[in-house]
Write a structure and sequence with these properties.
The structure holds two protein chains of two kinds.
Chain A lengths: L23 E10 L4 H11 L6 E8 L4 E10 L1 H13 L3 E6 H4 L2 E12 L3 H12 L3 E6 L2 E8 L1 H15 E13 L6
Antiparallel strand pairs in A: 1-3, 1-4, 2-3, 5-7, 5-8, 6-7
Helix pairs in contact in A: 4-5
Chain B lengths: L3 E3 H11 L4 E4 L6 H8 L5 E4 L3 H15 L3 E5 L3 H4 L2 H9 L4 E7 L15 H5 L5 E4 L6 H13 L5 E7 H5 L1 E3 L19 H12 L4 E5 L1 H5 L2 H14 L3 E3 L14 E4 L6 H9 L2 E5 L5 H4 L10 E6 L13 E4 L2 H15 L5 H15 L15 H12 L4 E5 L3 H9 L8 E2 L10 H11 L4 E7 L10 H6 L5 E6 L4 H10 L15 H8 L2 E5 L5 H10 L4 E6 L34 H4 L3
Parallel strand pairs in B: 2-3, 2-4, 4-5, 5-7, 6-7, 9-10, 9-12, 10-11, 12-13, 13-14, 15-16, 15-17, 17-18, 18-20, 19-20
Antiparallel strand pairs in B: 1-8
The chains are: A alpha+beta, B alpha/beta.
Protein name (chain A): Acetolactate synthase small subunit
Catalytic activity (chain A): 2 pyruvate + H(+) = (2S)-2-acetolactate + CO2
Function (chain A): Catalyzes the conversion of 2 pyruvate molecules into acetolactate in the first common step of the biosynthetic pathway of the branched-amino acids such as leucine, isoleucine, and valine.
């Protein structure tokens, strides 16, 4: 993942006069042909043009039509995010780009697996918190648990922060998947 | 005729069915089956270049001068990597190319086989699209699809990487008319409400300007003719980028010259002071805008482009119209006629009076000399002595390129081939070869510098082999002139590595290749020498010895605005004109 560009970089007289407003976080849904190299095209576009990727998920969503859905969480000025959308649309195997944040009313979820190790009171505390967050235990040993937690990014961040003093070992996260509310497709 | 054939035969058949008559290439192990298929036919002429970069630029010159797709054929590994500069050049300047590369057999891909490279991986960033053909069943579809993608929307280069086993495999051929692309469908017509808004803005403008670019040329001859029609209807002044030269006639009274870093005083000041800018097929590149926060501060901006990502990329646009230039210009001409209103005639007359004042500054003037050939004078004489002919001009990159843009004038599109976006030294000679292949009877001249020409000088052999009478007109100042000029401007005149030491004797070099060499250093001899060059029906290298330290002016120094140009009569203290932030720029 790219680090956000340093805010202290001097503005060149050639740098866009558009780039002076606030940084926003947007979730883009990108429907693509599931063909070799398509993910590389998308990721290469972001790295080549200096855009940020906060998270990215990809999987096939319609086998017969060879369609994959890429969900990208990106940050930038509103103008930069508009550019990102247009640049993505230029890629030949891309069917559709939708800015779910701009469109409003999307549901976003992420899945995380969180490994916590400890003994005695730590185990009890971990289980109590997991229950409060509705995390499921998907693996257990005498001195560890693996929790599965689904939710928005903030909830997962919060759960991980709470596990840290208890005995957090490692985390695997899927990145955000998102879909619009209501009856219609994007 | 059976439609069952080998992959290699399919490649040749698809090229024929796409109307390709000329391809540029270089054989090697991984494309031998395709070369064998070429051997068995005579519909497509293959031009053997001497370096694959030359093949790419030759295909670009062919494409730009003819309006068709340029095609090149190279082998795997180094054959493919040598095309990268040409592909990137075509991507930046929106030139439709098909580059067919051989690849090691599919079962060897990923094994670091001899002459293997990840061609689709390497070219992903420098092509509009690319394909690795893994099975012969996909080949015909991909070949036709590639032509569609290269030409439609904003044009660009497309690579088709074909493993050798796929070239040998038997498969069914599909005709081009049975192919439809499922995702890539560019929008051609502008939205009707935006056309109406644009026309309303034009009808109330007081200081309008058309800022046109390479998109008008790419859109085809009709776009150029519609631009002339719309300019005629409105009476607005017209300027153009380097890439758009020729789309509007330089001999027209509404033409105010090229804009940008080395554009005219009148074009840049008109851009700065206008109240309505109508950008047509241009992309607000940094060579055009200069300092962005001081770019045309008081104007409303209309931007017509087929690529939505070009709109609002660098400059905030008030009205963006996505569509093909010829379609949108047709819509604008019709709508402008229909609404019947004209802008305030008095305001327009005052605007033209102001432009004429700027024009009177004569920003392209230079100090004449009768002892040394001034490079601007050389281009002026070349223009005067060739303008009545069927002439195509290519250039390399540097001072000579800008002097050519300033002092050679074009009345038609597709006559001017130059590397604008990427700025590729070594472009001009192979591009001239491509243009000459497309126009065998025409006079094709590469206006060159002595440094640039050496970057692809090997293509002299190609010119000789195919008896292509290209003329290479070298403005020889013994420096990488633009580098030297910037060192004078930015680095206290410390000419680090910009002097062309150990130059070849260009006359002898021409003779060594079997071409004709001419040298001229006296202004009095120049006309006769140029006539000699034109009259010789063979390739000619013309070594024109020019003033070594002439600067290319006028100039918007880096980091400055359109109304802060260095003029030719005020270059004495060039070294003090650029501030520290400006020195950081390219």
């Amino acid at each position: 993942m790219n680090a956000p560009s340093a805010p202290s970089a001097p503005l060149s007289p050639y740098s866009s006069a558009l780039g002076k407003s606030n940084i926003e976080v947007h979730t883009l849904s990108v429907l693509v042909d599931n063909e070799p190299g398509v993910l590389a095209r998308v990721v290469g576009l972001f790295s080549g043009r200096g855009y940020n990727i906060e998270s990215l998920t990809v999987a096939e969503v319609a086998h017969a039509e060879h369609l994959s859905r890429i969900t990208i969480v990106t940050s930038g000025t509103p103008e930069a995010i508009e550019q990102i959308g247009h640049q993505l649309e230029r890629l030949v195997p891309i069917h559709k780009v939708t800015d779910l944040t701009l469109r409003g009313g999307a549901v976003e979820r992420e899945l995380a697996m969180i490994k916590v190790a400890g003994k005695g009171a730590c185990r009890d505390e971990a289980l109590r918190l997991a229950d409060a967050f509705r995390a499921r235990v998907i693996d257990a040993s005498i001195e560890s648990f693996v929790f599965e937690l689904t939710g928005n990014v903030g909830k997962i961040d919060q759960f991980i922060d709470l596990m840290r003093p208890i005995g957090l070992v490692e985390v695997a996260r899927t990145g955000v998947a998102a879909i619009s509310r209501g009856p219609n497709p994007i | 005729m059976s439609n069952l054939m080998t992959g290699a035969e399919m490649v040749v058949r698809a090229l024929q069915d796409q109307g390709v008559d000329t391809i540029f290439g270089y054989p090697g192990g991984a494309v031998l089956p395709i070369y064998d298929a070429l051997f068995h036919q005579d519909q497509i002429k293959h031009v053997l270049v001497r370096h694959e970069q030359g093949a790419a630029h030759a295909a670009e010159g062919y494409a730009r001068s003819s309006g068709k797709v340029g095609v090149l054929l190279v082998t795997s590994g180094p054959g493919a990597t040598n095309t990268i500069t040409g592909l990137t050049d075509a991507l930046m300047d929106s030139i439709p190319l098909i580059c067919i590369t051989g690849q090691v057999p599919t079962h060897l891909i990923g094994s670091d086989a001899f002459q293997e490279c990840d061609t689709v991986g390497i070219t992903r960033h420098c092509t509009k699209h690319n394909y690795l053909v893994r099975q012969v069943e996909d080949l015909a579809r991909i070949l036709h699809e590639a032509f569609y993608v290269a030409q439609n929307g904003r044009p660009g280069p497309v690579v088709i990487d074909i493993p050798k086993d796929v070239q040998f495999a038997l498969g069914a051929y599909l005709l081009p008319d049975r192919i439809e692309h499922k995702t890539y469908k560019p929008k051609l017509d502008g939205d009707a409400d935006k056309i109406a808004q644009a026309v309303a803005m034009m009808a109330t403008a007081r200081r309008p300007i058309f800022y046109t670019g390479g998109g008008v040329v790419n859109s085809g001859l009709e776009a150029s003719s519609l631009l002339r029609e719309l300019a005629g209807l409105t009476g607005f002044p017209v300027t153009s980028t380097l890439m758009g030269l020729g789309a509007f006639p330089a001999s027209d009274k509404q033409w105010i010259g090229m804009l940008g870093m080395h554009g005219t005083f009148e074009a840049n000041n008109a851009m700065h002071d206008c109240d309505l800018m109508i950008a047509v097929g241009a992309r607000f590149d940094d060579r055009i805008t200069g300092r962005l926060d001081a770019f045309s501060p008081g104007s409303k901006k209309i931007h017509i482009d087929i690529d939505p990502s070009s709109i609002n990329k660098n400059v905030k646009i008030d009205l963006g119209i996505v569509g093909d230039c010829s379609h949108v210009l047709r819509q604008l001409v019709d709508a402008y006629r229909a609404q019947g209103k004209q802008p305030d005639a008095g305001a327009l007359a005052r605007w033209w009076a102001q432009i004429d004042k700027w024009r009177a500054r004569r920003s392209l003037s230079f100090k004449a000399s009768d002892t040394v050939i001034k490079p601007q004078y050389a281009v002026q004489r070349l223009y005067e002595l060739t303008k009545s002919r069927d002439v195509y001009i290519t250039t390399e990159v540097g001072q000579h390129q800008m002097w050519a843009a300033q002092h050679y004038h074009f009345d038609e599109p597709n006559r001017w081939m130059t590397s604008g976006g990427l700025g590729t030294m070594g472009y001009g000679l192979p591009a001239a070869i491509g243009a000459q292949m497309a126009h065998p009877q025409a006079l094709v001249i590469d206006i060159a510098g002595e440094a640039s020409i050496l970057m692809n000088i090997q293509e002299m052999s190609t010119a000789l082999q195919y008896r292509l009478p290209v003329k290479i007109f070298i403005l020889n100042n013994e420096y990488m002139g633009m580098v030297r000029q910037w060192q004078e401007l930015l680095h206290g005149g410390r000419y680090s590595e910009s002097y062309s030491e150990a130059l070849p004797d260009f006359v002898k070099l021409a003779e060594a290749y079997g071409a004709h060499g001419i040298r001229c250093s006296d202004p009095a001899d120049l006309d006769a020498a140029i006539m000699e060059m034109i009259d010789i029906p063979r390739p000619v290298i013309f070594d024109c010895i020019v003033d070594k330290t002439e600067n290319c002016l006028p100039m918007i120094p880096s980091g400055k605005a359109h109304n802060e140009m260095i003029m030719p009569d005020e270059d004495a203290d060039m070294g003090t004109m650029i501030d520290a932030p400006g020195k950081m720029l390219v």
